Amino acid sequence: MGDVLNIMDVAGVGAGALVTEMVKSTWESVRDAVAGLFRRGGEETAEQELRLIDTARQRLVDSPDSERGSVESRLRGELTIQLAAFLQKNPDAAQALQDLADRVRGADTSAGARTSVHGNTNSQVVISGGDISASGGIHYRAPEQSR
């Protein structure tokens, strides 16, 4: 039973990493790594698994912004099941998937903050890669007032 839980953990982490990467410009390199992972099950298996991954990514990319969160959540669940099934047949691939997920997450944390701002009409957004000292306050004037 411990092995099954381990496979499920790795599959969940891997699914989360894949869904996160699907909408980034780095997706093709991640997809290539996933293809290599799936080739451990044979070329035919790799093609079938990648077709499912590509279909999932297309659903995510085509989803409206207002539904993106729920689509991501569903895809994480679906991909967890897909990856767990693959890992049960190919347990030697578990470490490779964990390494891929770690690499993807490591790239996210070293790349700095990623922020998406929605519905911020008449407001100000401050993004910093380090400390901000606002001891004198932050003064904001709408662009049309500063002309």
Account of the protein in words:
Mean pLDDT is 82; it is low at 1-5. Helices cover 62% and strands 0% of the residues. It is mainly α and 147 residues long.
List keywords for this structure.
147 residues; mainly alpha; elongated; disordered N terminus
Structural class: mainly alpha
Q: Overall pLDDT, averaged?
A: 82
Regions with pLDDT < 50 over 5+ consecutive residues? 1-5
User: Percentage of helical residues?
Assistant: 55-70%
Q: What's the shape?
A: elongated
Strand content: under 5%
Largest sheet: none
Count of DSSP E strands? 0
Measured distance between first and last alpha carbons: 68 Å
What's a quick, concise take on this entry?
The chain is built from five helices and no strands.
Note the topology:
Blueprint lengths: L1 H20 L5 H12 L4 H20 L5 H22 L4 H17 L37
